[in-house]
Amino acid sequence: MTGRYYEEFEVGETIEHEKRRTISERDNQQFCDMTMNQQPLHLDAEFAAETEFGERLVNGLYTMSVAVGLTIPETTDGTIVANLSYDSVEHPNPVFHGDTIRVQSTVTDKRETSDGDRGIVTMHVEVFKLTDSDDVLVCEFDRTVLSLKRNHAE
């Protein structure tokens, strides 16, 4: 277990997540198949070539899902009760097959539950694709979790 208990989160801190992920064509295809999303912009190379992007895009929900997964070790691995919400999701730039993403989370709010046994933590998650010059923001969202407090963990 590597996650943090409620007391270990500090409002304003930014957590740089170490793991990164290169997104493959197979990843995108499998995610679209599993979710029954047959949007041609994700799957049809000829269709996508005629768009402003010129090639297939990685499904934005896949990008977001991978981002959440990449945050788990340093935030909620073994210390979470539940994910409560994902809010204010934006995809300002596309992700393409072969792009590598990295993630950072900034703690924006925390409060105890009414019974005082657990805590609610909100993090602003930013996802960047790595480039030769500057990293490019490709997704951002707010993730709110119900977290265990150290003294109430089983």
TrEMBL record:
Protein name per its UniProtKB record: Molybdenum cofactor biosynthesis protein
| Pfam families membership | MaoC_dehydratas
Q: Which InterPro entries match?
A: HotDog_dom_sf, MaoC-like_dom, MCH/BMMD
Q: What is the lineage of its organism?
A: Archaea, Methanobacteriati, Methanobacteriota, Stenosarchaea group, Halobacteria
Ranges of residues in domain MaoC-like: 11-123
